[in-house]
């Protein structure tokens, strides 16, 4: 086993003890780095601990740089990693400080704030720690096409509701344009209801009432979609496997495989024979 | 094939290449037209690009005019189209500019703003692109009677809640009349909660608390209705019946009956034979 | 058939033509009466049409008085009606105007506003028109014990959340007392979010964040309860009836009655025999 | 039966009449004590009834002290009780007044307000009265791992959404730091929508619109998880297995197997025979 293979085992797999330690250490550093980004955005904290924050940011950046280089070196096909989702995330998590040095020397200090955005991409490094293949994810992925059709309808409803409110209430009551009206309609349909804009005229309040009742019925739809998909997912789990063709997706009451027509109870029958 | 039939194929069907190109082009023009309506409503944009917007609006209107005329000409029974949902939508999407010309000449410039409302009907042209027969739509349509009974109850609850709050809080705390109270009750029951009106007295806050907890339990109902209907819809899809034992409760992917093991495709096989 | 029986048929049953006409007329008068109550609460309308409103209110009151007297006379056991839910509602819908006369003569004009509350009880007269035995109502009634346990937990959570916020934010940020804190907690947990009171300190905002995420998970519970009950209700409907004992609540895949053990397919078997 | 056993029966069990009386009395005192804590926090009430409140608080504290001592004495292994959830709750419910005496004598009057927090723990004494083993609780407990994964995703989304809004809207529109942005994102995603902070710029409103639509789809997930778990729980209850054919999927009320028609109570019948 070469040193590259050893490194690969440590950073890509969590089977060995070294691998697990690396995973936990990485997790802590990511979270620490995110806490740093958050605290850095609070002005009075940022001013007080400026030197400490810069130092810590450099330590974290160097750590991520080493991690990135090791990941590229230790994998057989570096291209697969570099252009994968995690490859891009790791890259974007590393460069902000280097880029800010270049910007600083060229005098474009204003863009430094936008660079903070890039550091936030580090949060995606945490996605590695979620089981991506969980049954929740499966049910969600299957619901996406239906939810998209649904969102399409919501957007159409918002468009009409927003325009109607723009005409009824008008700019004097905060509905300054159709986009503002649509923004209000979505705030209302999703039941968020900030209250920054709200109907003032009796007619506007009446129409808003209808929109809200509509939203009330409509909020049931994505819930219904996901729930139906999840219930399905649940039922699918408890199933017998056909000993002939391997099909596993049978009903609870099935006697024969719906795929090949073979009896599902052969093994049980054998067991009964063996017991005799 | 006459030219009318050719036109019919292009604008009514999406099977041929020309038909698909027409569909995509129409989709882009509708969306562009809606973006135009939206931007036109933002005052400072509207003032700056006035000439451009008028020109584009004329181009779009002429395109919709041609589309409308071709749809009327190329169909066998024009009446069926003209008085159908899409016929009316297409008509209302076309006329605003023409009507505004007449209004402008007669000096009634004030009504021009209301005419913008008619242009918004173009959004309904987008409905053509949603699969109307999707299982979501089916489940929704079946839930409507139950949801109506439910909304009826919500309206009755809102009526009482609104009146009680009007009496308890009174005009001095924003509940200026029973309609305002009902408006507040619906804003609260649907969990939108704008906050433009809210209870101020301790008793009012206590009653609001009970209304909110009620709304909390009540929001479950439309969700329950739609979800139950969707779960049903999911189960219902498997409509093949075994020709041997009559079992009907098969999975979509079933090839053989899970009850007797007989092939589910016998009839299809026969049909294929008969066609030979 | 005596005249009492005829009156009974008209006002208690909707089978005959006269009964249907009475039902529709009553429905219109109730709704008209409610619209009157609503409009009467809007000050500027109330002042303008004062005489008209008083006249209409008298007509409606006299109509309800006649209806109430007829209902009492035409029924065999008047006590059953008078002390039933609808009897009390009908009584309370009739008396406000009479009581206001007495109050007016005794000079207590201030209480007139509270009397309006009684007129609102007329809304309950509309409940007669909703099918009380619908499957939605059944599922809801079965969910009530579970929802009560749930509300009990929500109240306990609100109590703690409200107290914590009262201590953390304090009266200077709007949390003037524990009841106010509890009011805020329920406004937040039910996702209504008026915004009349909201956390201002960073610690308060952090705790609010946790409360909201908790509420996010918790709102799923009543929905889950009602949905599970409704899905159950749905499954229960599509069922075969046992020809031996009359039990109807069988599974779709049942071959024998789970109540008496008799074959469920006897009739089908007979039909098959008859066809031979 | 020693007096210790008698006390144990009264305070730990609700079988005897004395035990039931004790339970009801305790329930009333806990609720009364909580009402006292609540009213005490309302300044003008607290000032007016100061002496009454202090007296009542002493009576309640002495009652809880006696209860606590009796619970410790009457149980066989006091350690099990003292360090159990209810033991700690009972202890924390009793001490605040005693501690406040010590603090008062040492002059640290400022901390008295924080001591009120401890009295709130009495609400947990109410948990004893909820059936902890209800099917709702079971379904919730089983949903926790999935809901945690889900909350993890929500936190990641909030983090990104909050940062983006901080950059787009900036401190001048209320998004003073990333933590504030995250607070706003959670307020929005959970559809609470206080409105204390809200987007002002068109771009901010557009991004907020997308976040709300996302939240709209996302709120379906915990509901789906809990509902699916509850539907499962409902189905799982029917646990009788037919001793003849092994079919397990029976209704609760089933007397005979729906698959083979055999009695489901054979074993019970045998057991009854054996007992004879």
UniProtKB/TrEMBL annotation, chains A, B, C, D:
Locations listed in the record: Membrane
Highest taxon above the source species: Bacteria
Boundaries of every Ion transport domain copy: 20-236
Membrane topology according to the record: Multi-pass membrane protein
UniProt key word Transmembrane helix: yes
Gene Ontology CC entries for this record: voltage-gated potassium channel complex
Membrane-spanning parts: 21-39, 51-70, 82-103, 147-168, 206-228
Gene Ontology BP terms: action potential
Protein name: Potassium voltage-gated channel, putative
Gene source species: Psychroflexus gondwanensis ACAM 44
């Amino acid at each position: 086993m070469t040193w590259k293979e050893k490194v690969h085992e440590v950073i890509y797999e969590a089977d060995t003890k070294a691998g697990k330690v690396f995973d936990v250490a990485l997790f802590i550093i990511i979270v620490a780095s995110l806490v740093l980004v958050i605290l850095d955005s609070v002005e009075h904290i940022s001013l007080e601990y400026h030197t400490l924050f810069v130092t810590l940011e450099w330590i974290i950046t160097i750590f991520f740089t080493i991690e990135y280089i090791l990941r590229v070196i230790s994998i057989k096909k570096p291209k697969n990693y570099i252009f994968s989702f995690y490859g891009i995330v790791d890259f974007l998590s590393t460069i902000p400080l280097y880029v800010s040095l270049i910007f600083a020397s060229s005098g474009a200090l204003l863009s430094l704030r936008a660079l903070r955005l890039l550091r936030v991409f580090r949060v995606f490094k945490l996605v590695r720690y979620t089981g991506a293949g969980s049954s929740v994810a499966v049910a969600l992925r299957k619901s996406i096409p239906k939810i998209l059709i649904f969102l399409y309808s919501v957007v159409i409803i918002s468009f009409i509701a927003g325009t109607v409110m723009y005409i009824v209430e008008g700019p004097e009551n905060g509905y300054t344009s159709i986009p503002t009206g649509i923004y209000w309609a979505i705030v209302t349909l999703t039941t968020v209801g900030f209250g920054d804009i709200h109907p003032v005229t009796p007619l506007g309040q009446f129409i808003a009432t209808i929109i809200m009742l509509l939203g009330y019925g409509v909020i049931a739809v994505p819930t219904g979609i996901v729930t139906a998909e999840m219930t399905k997912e649940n039922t699918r789990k408890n199933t017998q496997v056909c000993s002939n063709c391997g099909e596993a997706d049978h009903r609870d009451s099935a006697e024969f495989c719906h795929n090949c027509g073979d009896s599902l109870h052969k093994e049980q029958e054998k067991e009964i024979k063996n017991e005799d």
